[in-house]
Each structure stands twice: as C-alpha cells, then as structure tokens.
Amino acid sequence: MLKIVKLHIDFMNCPMGIAAYPQIGWTLDSDKTNVCQQAYRLQISNDSSFEELLYDSDWVETDQSAYHRPTAYPLKSANFYFVRVCVKDNYGEASVWSDKASFLTGLVEEAWSSPFITAESEEDAALSKGTYVRYDFTVEKNVVSAVFFSTALGLYHSYVNGKKIGSDEMAPGWTTYKKRLLYQTNDITTEIKRGKNTLGAHLGAGWYKGLIGLSKKRNLYGDRTAFSAQLLITFDDGTQETIRTNEQWEGSDSPVLFSEIYDGEIYDGRLEQPGWNTPDFPDDRLNGWKKVTTVKYPSHQVFAQPGSHVKVIDTIPVKELITTPEGDKVLDFGQNMAGRIEFKVTGRPGDRVQLHCFEVLDAHGNVYIENLRDAKQTITFYCGKEQETYHPNFTYQGFRYAKICAYPGEILEENFVAQSMHSEMEPTGHFECSNEDLNQLQHNIVWGLKSNFLDVPTDCPQRDERLGWTGDAQIFCRTATYNMNTHQFFSKWLKDLVADQTPEGGVTHVVPDIITGISDDNWLLKQGTHSAAAWADAAVINPWTLYLTFGDLGIVREQYASMKAWIDFMTLHSTNNIWNYQLQFGDWVALDAQEGSYFGATPNDLTCTAYYAYSTLLFAKMAKALGNHEDHAQYTTLYERIVATFIATFFDQEGNLTAQTQTAHVIALYFKLTPKKWIEKTADRLVKLIDRENGHLVTGFVGTPYICHALSQNGKIKEAYELLLKDDLPSWLYQVKMGATTIWEHWDGMKPDGTMWSAGMNSFNHYAYGAIGEWLYRVVAGIEIDEETPGYKHCLIKPLVGGNLNRVKGAYNSVYGTVSSEWTYNGTEYELTVEIPVNTTGTIYLEQASEVICKNAIDAVKEDKGYRVHLGSGIHHLQFSV
Ligand code: BGC
Fold this sequence. Notes:
The protein is α+β, with helices and mostly antiparallel strands. It contains 14 helices and 48 strands. The protein is globular and about 85 Å long. It binds beta-D-glucopyranose (BGC).
C-alpha cells in the first residue's frame, strides 16, 4: 500500500513562526519495491477539515516530493495553515490523503511594532537580576484565535493567566543582537477567556546583558533587559484586537537575585509574589511595582524564529550519591551534559540549598572544578515556604556531577533530577555495531552534540567560554547533520555569521561575534578576530553540508553572497595563490605542537591554502547547482590555480610533502590536492607517520576529522580501522576506556593516572573530535550522499568492512525517508541489508568484494574494484565475500 508517512514544512514538523512561503515535502512508504512518485496533489487550507481550500495543486505529474513552494495562496500573519497531500506511483496506485500537517505564521507582511519595556533602571546596569512585567486586560467577546509573539533583550519566560507560554528555555536565544533578534510565536487561543486576563514575563540578563566572553565583560549589547510582545486576538465576529507591551505595563524585581550564563543563579523564594502573573493578583501589589519604561531597539531587526527552540529535552535521574574522599556529598548523574538541575526541598523560609556543578572527579575521586576557570556554575536557592520545587531560570550548566554545598535535611537522590537542554532537533541518525566501545563513542558524539547545540554551536558548555567558535561548528557539521536534523539550527546561525561578516567578507572566529573590538587584552585574539582557515570556512562548508544533506538550494541561495565574499576575501589577501592572514589557529591542539603550545606543527601557509582551495571548489559546485555558470567557470579556474600552486609549493620534485606531519598528508589527500601519480606515495607516507607514533594520530582540529577518510579513500582501510580502534593514548577510544560520556577537547585531557591536562583549557565536553562520527556513517555503515543528486534522491551505499566488526547498522532519516545499511559477518561471508526510501534510488558499491550474490533479479556489476549494484526503493538483501 502506498502511503504518506510524514509531511515536512521547511524541513520541520508543524513549525510555528513561519514568515515566508515555506517549502513542503513528504516521505512515502510502500510495501512494493522500486516505487516512484508519478504525480501528487497538494492542498492548503484555512481549516483542518479542508473545507476552506486556499490552494489546490490538482494532480501534477512529477517525481518531485520535496522542495515544493506553492505561493498561489494568501499568506497572512498569525494564521494556521493546514496541508495535506496524496500521490500516485509508477504502479498506478494512489494513496489516500496524508494526515494533515500544519504551520502557524508569524508576522508576514508587517514588521515588528511593539515597544520594548523594562522594569530596570540605569542603576541596574551592573546587575544581573530578574524582573517581572505584567499587564491586565479585558476581553469582551468570544475569542476564536489568539496568537502571541514575544521576544526580549535578555532572556525571558512569558505567561498568560499564570500559565507558562510555550516550553522554550533560554529564549529568545543568542543572535548577533546588534543586527538580529528573534521573536517566538505561540498559539494561546485556549488560554484567553472572556473577562479579565493577564500577560506577564520574567526577564533575566542572559547573553545580552550578563558577563560573557573571554574578555570578561558584561553589557555587551545593552544595560537593561526588556520585553516586547504583541498578542493578536481574533473574535467570533471577525474583528481583531492587538494587545502590546506599552508603558501601561507594570514592573517589579523578581526573586532571582542573580542569574548569568557562566556563574549560575541565586534565587530567594521568600521574595516570591504568588499570583503575580494572574488576574487575581491583589491590588495592594503596588508595593514595589512601578510603571515600566521603554528601551529602544530597531524593529526592522526583529525576525521570526520558526524552529530549533531550546527546550528541556531529557530528564536524567541521579545515578549515585557519592561521598568523596574529602567528604563532599556529590550527585552523579552518570552523563555529562548541558542543562540544569531541578530539586525538591523541604525547609524553613531562608534555609539554603547550594549546588556546584562540574564535569569530572580528579585522580583521587574528589571534586574537580579548576577546568571551569572562572565559571562559578553555582545554584543558590533560599526556601520561601516549606515545600519547594525549583530549577534555575536563566542559566545553564555543563556538568555530570554536582557538589551539594548546602541542603537542609536529609539528601535523598529522588529529590534531584538533571534536565538536559538544547535546541530542539529531530534525531535523524542511528549507528550501532558489534563493538561496544564504538557504540559508546557514538553515544559520546551524540551527547557532545546535545551539550553544545544550545541555540548556538558552542565549543563547550561548562567553562567561562561557551562561544560559537566557527571552526568547531565547521568540522563537526557533517557528523551533527547525520545525527540530528540541523537544518534550522545551522540556517539560523549562518544568518548571524553573515551579520558579523566584515565589509571585506572576513568571517569572525566566533559567531555571534563578541570578540571584535574588545580583545586587545587577550594574548591570542589581539592578533586577529576573524578569518582563520578551517574556522572561517564554516561560511562555505556548513551551507554545503546542508545542501548535500537536504538537497535544499534555498540555503545555497541565502548564503551565496556570503560564501562568495569569503572566497574573495581570501583571494584579496593571498599572494600568488598562497593565502594566510593574521591570527591562524592552524591544526589547533594537535599533539605535534611544541611543548606548551596549542598550535600543531603543520605550517599555516599549507593549512590556509588547502582550505582556500577546498572552499573555492565547494563554492564553484554550488554556483553550478544554482545555474550560475559564470561564477562556476570563474571559481573553477581559481580553484585550479590554487591547486597548481599548492602542488608546486608544498610538494617537492619527488612528490614528498614539505611538511612531514600527519595533518599535511591528511588534507593533501582528502581535499584532493595531491597529483594522481603521488597519491599512493602520500598515503603510504601518512601510514608511516602514524606508525612513527606507534599507530596513533597526533592531529588537531584540522587533521582529525579527515584522517580516517584520507586512509580509507586511498586503499588503507585496515589502517583506518586500526586507528579508529586504538584505545590507548591518544585515541578516540582512550576517552571511552577512561569512562568519558562526551568527547574531550584534548586527547590527553585526563592522563591514564587520572591527572589532568592544564586546567586553563581542558573541556570534557567539546564536540570537535567527535567529527569522526561522519566516518562511522559514511564509511563503516557506508551511507553516503551522491553530490550529483543531493538530499538522498539517489544515495550511495559504500560500506568498507573491517576492524573485526561482525555487525554494523547505520540509518539516516532523509527528506525522502529512511536510508539504512546493515551488514553482518559470519566468519566467511557478509550479509548486507539496505533500505532505499520510496521515490529514490541507490547504488551499492562494494569495493572490497570478490563475489556478490544478489536475490530478486538484482544484478551486481563487476567494477575495476569490486562490484556495483543499482537499486530502486525497498529493502534489499545481498551477500558478498571479500
Ligand atoms: C575553543 C576552541 C576554539 C579555539 C580557537 C578555544 O578556546 O575552546 O574549541 O576553536 O579556542 O582556537
């Protein structure tokens, strides 16, 4: 039976806050094989019963089941749209109508128009306290719809009649506030009643006003928190009314005495004002409440946030309550994460609970907080009444453990729970195999992602940093995008990357950029705050990765000028095609660095020029995909010139790379900068350089993501697996053996004896080295994208077996449905099961196979190396021997 499994809208499920005509797509399922869509019919309606049709495509003959962007219907603000589709396939079968999907629009035609109101005064500039704002209003007619748009300078939670609106945390998220601020859209129709109603908001300092960044400065964007909202109510007589923030709202301090991203929160429950956000709040409240004032913020800089909202995602109980050798009581949640702790407490007013969150225990099993640097990560709560349940409001911690510094009464594990928080993204990938250490590595990669995709892709969630380092986000992008649907998350961040780009097209080291102009006292950043190879290349590589994964040309169009400007920046600052510029991080934290240095041994000229070539090539490919033939030709020529210069400069006459580092060999191979005749030699040399380290890698941020690819793509499959499976220092599995639950910043973050790398920079939750994850999906499971037909319309299944694995399963939930590849080995032959989604095709390449046995009239074609099998949709089984 042919059916529609899911509709996606702008690659999301039922988004709220759509401000332009969205792209619509669907995934199909059928019990037949080789199924293609022949035609579809798409309807969009104002009502969920599809009686008031706004759009009907009628039957359209095409196999296209994604990227439909109908525009022949009116798109109005604050309106629910319902979408359904039915399809016909190549067997003549027609589906029934799909389940309906919906989207809620934000502000479509109009710009933001509500004032920003604050309960703070100028004297509060140095404080990071919480404030309340509230407003009563009366509704005299029956409500048919009420859509609430809200945002803040700072962080906020909003309320209607005492109830929290939506489930966002850390809203409105972190953007380049100087140019962009996002508002959230919520449907609160069922909450607004006839009679008196109350809107309220609780505000905190957040990234906007609190201390943030390496320069230890506060008020980077402003010195007063402020709230802005508009509630659009539609009545049953068709009339509408908008309630806005204005100077009639009242404001007061809240029980949050202090709350900041790094340092945690102090909350005094004795200062609570029960009912402050309800219509029943008594009139004598005026005690301490005063009229708010307004703060200026350019309304044209306020944009909708349609998805990827930060939320509480997992609830994790205490694994163990420990008493350390030093006598500290410590909660162990068994998982390093970003989030917060919620606890229950019974006490007298003024009794104190204090928790200090941290990541690891030291060699003796005691609390280790030195690597948090100046981040206090401390939660202090004063009881206001006898029974309390509390979690912090405007902060998050990076932690696995919490030291209980104070708690009245008996400490019971069941009174504490960790709540992991990150941007909401649909999990899309699955990888598991017969090696439990690799499964733990995969787990750690996913948790590195979950801990650091908190509105911005951060380097780490715990120390006084947590910044959107572009390099980290670039090298991990492909891995992240296998594991979760990052489309919205990265699209949003890339807009900030553009907003921060220098007039010449330079790309800042961190996005949002909070280092330019204030880093003169930083030993490193005073040398430059933008345009480092591998970091700035996020401008091209991240859109490229989204384009490959989702097949979305929209993102390419959106980022096109920015990508081009970045390539042109490199051209402008290059000399005879060799590019280098100001501060470079090079092969950051590679182990071939000189003693005490963070900079790996691979020369910057080489790393910079290699990335210059790679980004130029990707940009030329995207120009072609958009049909921009002139740019394609121009940048292909540039690319060829850079490659020729790279070869002439960094290889000697005999074909040896002048830099004898692993990373130099890795990028020369992976970026295809090695002449054909020298590929074998370069790959052999890479193996020797690994052998020289007793089979270990010593690569940093630049070499690590690609080292296994550079080996496996060039005939060194055995060596790639050996590297992956090493489990002594330095290696991926060393961390696993040491009990890691996330990925570490340094290979040797914790030594075998439990002693630590220097506390100055030693995160145990840094996703960068988790970039090996893409090798697990692309090579071990073999789920690979076909660049010619991105988005998995035609996919490649290219598993490379090895590593003593006898069972591997990888799956990716693409825009067309699940692509999966599972292989098992019984000691003599391999069994492969592949799933190809309806309306797509795939080609299996078994490069190692000496024989292939197919069933069901599928042919294996002998290739120069191994076999090729072409497949239509369905689940297919075959056997092969190597
Ligand atoms: C961060 C890295 C980042 C680097 C830049 C560090 O402090 O934690 O992950 O990319 O600085 O070199």
